[in-house]
Amino acid sequence: MKHQPPKRPVAKKPVQNTANRRRDSATGNRSAWLRHHRDCARDSLLRLLRSPVSSALTWLVIAISLTLPTLFYLALSSLQAQTEQWQEGGQITLYLEQGLADEDGNRLTRELDARPEVARAYYISAEDAWESFQTTLSLSQQSLGFSSNPLPASIVVIPSQQNSSQLEALQLIIRGLPEVDDVQLDLAWIDRLNRFLELIYSVVTGLAVLLGVAVLLVVGNTIRLAIESRKDEIRVIKLLGATEAFVRRPFVYLGIWYGLLGGIAAWILVTTVAWWLRSPLTAFLGTYGLEANVAWLGFTDTLVLILASIGVSLAGAHIALQRHLKDAEPR
Amino acid sequence: MIHFDQVSKRYEGGHEALSSVSLHIEKGEMVFLTGHSGAGKSTLLKLITRIEKASSGQLRVNGQILNRLRRSQIPHFRRNLGIVHQDHQLLMDQTVYDNVALPLIIAGEHPKDVTRRVRAALDKVGLLEREKYRPIQLSGGEQQRVGIARAVVKKPAILLADEPTGNLDPGLSRDIMELFSEFNRVGTTVLIASHDLGLIARLNYRVASLQDGKLMSTPFEGRRS
Fold this sequence. Notes:
A: 331 residues, Alpha-Beta Plaits, 2 domains, 11 helices, elongated, disordered N terminus
């Protein structure tokens, strides 16, 4: 009899001190409050499971709406992992002045290598360049008709950042070096790729927002119907002294359950689709000599997905309650 | 306990349902409210339960001035009222027990006390053995008794009834009225709206009569318990 309501002890001992009485009543209220939360959570879940077909329709709609942006997000993460593999493609080749000594070339390479915006820099002497050129073409110097080595020495710089503005800044510095004759950049395609990824990100974000609104409306409508079907009950309990929070609570939990079940269903759908696409994608990327790197939803991503689902469903429930609970005032 | 001071109620559109009603019901009194349909009986009860708000005048119920009641205070105010409806307003998808327990659950009573008090209330109206039934399985008179059990389960200071015998035959009506008398005898203030003048006449209580929104007479002080 720990949570005895205050009435009886007060009636028995009318001179009980007030501070004590207030504390009793506060603990009583809190445990009553917790009890009602627990009961509402259970009753709402039972209500939902009692009509499995119609409630399954709702959380499947939630699941599908969440699956699409999540899949895009997965694809983008995979693509980003891929572009990190391609980072070496964004290299800058510096052709040095003809006749520059190898020591000067090596010194310059070391200086560039030490810069923070440079991941790696290496020196290719004029002789090495000429040799590899001949090897590649399987021709001798004479048959090419050159009496001496026509190639300059060069330095290959691999930037540490692929951000296009940082690359341009680095490029400006390099062009200013007196030893450098010409600079060849292989940056345009990286720039394009980055811009493309940015575009895709915006599209996916827009899509996610749009589908989030769809979830909001679907849950809102489902809760509206639930309110509608229990309008008489709401009127009765309001007349019996139910507070606004008490009336709302079962519907709030209904929203939470829809969100949770929808989120779990979305996770299953996403994982299934990712698994299903894994082998064709590997085969496809393999033809480009690329390693497939299909991401899975990790623990954090899964948590975010389910919490987002619950959050959006809760918002939908709140909107429905805000709009439709007013119609259920006692008459 | 219930004090109307020059209370008027005008609905939107100008219809005046109550005009300058002054009615005082003391603690422990039992009063009948009569009048033909449309006379303002329902409006008067709706003002007491704070479903409607008076347009002018002052209404004091259980020590609280209703016009000054904030929205958030209304639920707590209503917990001191027991309300019996003509159509009993029971939840048809729940058992008799759950229906009667509702006011206690809403007030956050401990489950142990809920069981004890629900049983006591059902015992009082003679339906203890029906607690597992659904209201739909009961007769009209039994349903009304479940409604009364729900209204009294919290031992409210005030018991209001709107045509509680409206759908019942005379024998059952007498039983229901006898129940109200019993609650009145233990100190509950009771106000019953009814047009069953024959039945009221046989019971020796004060009668307040409404006609076109005006209080006609409170002719005699009925017996007090």
